[in-house]
Amino acid sequence: MIVNFHEHPYEGVGEHNASLGIDRMVLLADRDTNDLVCDMAEREPQRYIPFYRADVNDIPKSCAELRHYVQHRGVRGVKFQPLSQSVMPNDPKLYPFYEVCQELRAIVLFHAGVVAFPKHYVRFGNPVQVDDVAWDFPDLRIVIAHLGGNYSYEAMVICSNHPNVYMDTAYLHFFCDRSLPQVQPIELVARAVRFCGPEKILFASEDVHPSLIADSDLAEETKKLILSGNALRLLDEQ
């Protein structure tokens, strides 16, 4: 089995992932697609795993909504996009929400890295503040997306320091193509395995093919962990 831990809802998403050999995928909602990802997961629970998007400007409402979505609609986690939500992960206003996530065992995934999209404010791209959240909520399970993007060093340090912090491999080609000095995606994955441990890395796509891991020189057991084992354990399915 191959699990894609970072995907977005769009027409044909299931077929596209199937063409890559991907069996299951975490669907990350935005504020307009919370119900959509849940509907897709209810129709095909063997394929889709829904994640909720919080309204960071109305935390009491988001806390209540998350309880509903976890208890009644099968949501397994939350996606934050600090660049477009204009919020730092360690903003105190989010802490009541993290308490609810921790209570419900909802995974929290943070985008990390600078991307040049409209209304994405780059000052929010550095994941270093995730360290504060991990210290303050030691039982909260956290995923730093994109291996930290262009902040891979910071992400690896945070991941290695905290037992409940993980990283995903989504969109690595974008960040590696822009890195100086140049680095290849598999080199970055291998480095993360070396410094954080193979049990901390989650395969995720966004144009990263499973073959990046499957055809690499990584140990076979490491490949299995990255491609599905770590995700299933994190999702309490193993």
Written account of the structure:
There is one protein chain. This protein has a single domain (3-234), classed as Alpha-Beta Barrel (TIM Barrel), CATH 3.20.20. It has an eight-stranded parallel sheet with strand order 1-2-3-4-5-6-7-8. Helix 7 (152-161) links the parallel strand 6 and strand 7 (165-168). It is of the alpha/beta class and 238 residues long. It is 42% helix and 13% strand. The chain starts with a strand and ends with a helix.
Helix count equals 11
**Element order: H for helix, E for strand:** EHEHEHEHHEHEHEHHEHH
| Percent of residues in β-strands | 5-15%
Lateral strand order in the biggest sheet: 1-2-3-4-5-6-7-8
How is the CATH topology named?
TIM Barrel
Set out the fold topology:
Elements: E1 3-7, H1 13-19, E2 24-28, H2 34-43, E3 48-52, H3 59-73, E4 77-80, H4 82-85, H5 95-104, E5 107-110, H6 130-136, E6 142-144, H7 152-161, E7 165-168, H8 172-177, H9 185-196, E8 201-202, H10 211-214, H11 220-234
Parallel strand pairs: 1-2, 2-3, 3-4, 4-5, 5-6, 6-7, 7-8
For the structure shown, list the relevant keywords.
TIM Barrel; 238 residues; alpha/beta; 11 helices
Offer a quick outline of the entry.
The chain contains 11 helices and 8 strands. An 8-stranded parallel sheet has the order 1-2-3-4-5-6-7-8. The protein has helices spanning 13-19, 34-43, 59-73, 82-85, 95-104, 130-136, 152-161, 172-177, 185-196, 211-214, 220-234, and strands spanning 3-7, 24-28, 48-52, 77-80, 107-110, 142-144, 165-168, 201-202.
